[in-house]
Write a structure and sequence with these properties.
By secondary structure, the protein is an alpha/beta fold. 50% of the residues lie in helices and 16% in strands. The protein is built from five helices and four strands; from the N terminus they run βαβαβαβαα. α1 packs parallel to α4, α2 packs across α3 and α4 packs antiparallel against α5. The longest helix has 15 residues. The two termini are 24 Å apart.
Length: 121
């Protein structure tokens, strides 16, 4: 089943978004939250790359601002695994929620991306 990665400058935003989504759609979807660096605001390419390299299914990635996007882009570019990894340009909470609901009802990666593009593109 399609996975979700959430990248934020804030640990609280990443973890809170994951908690919201998990409560709404259950634990059937693998959601990984990466926020902050060493307890402070920021993003780390190394942390993001480690998460991307550990995926075990197609994955949709959401981010908040600035270096979160830049580091996510680089991690995806450096990924050499066999799964599809897509960066999604949508609001981090609303986009992640929309994707998770669509994944939970069995939509394909392409169907989820089309839904996100329709709502946020």
């Amino acid at each position: 089943m399609t996975q979700i990665i959430i990248v934020s400058h804030s640990k609280e935003i990443a973890d809170g978004t994951k908690a919201l989504i998990s409560q709404m759609v259950g634990e059937d979807i693998t959601i990984t939250a990466q926020g902050g660096v060493n307890g402070k605001i920021g993003t780390s390419y190394d942390d993001i790359q480690e998460i991307v390299n550990q995926i075990d299914d197609d994955t949709l990635c959401f981010y908040d601002i600035g270096s979160a996007e830049m580091n996510l882009d680089l991690a995806i570019e450096m990924y050499d695994g066999k799964y599809r990894v897509e960066k999604i340009d949508a609001p981090i909470v609303e986009g992640t929620f929309t994707a998770a609901v669509n994944i939970s009802v069995g939509n394909t990666v392409d169907e989820v991306i089309n839904e996100l593009n329709t709502n946020f593109g």
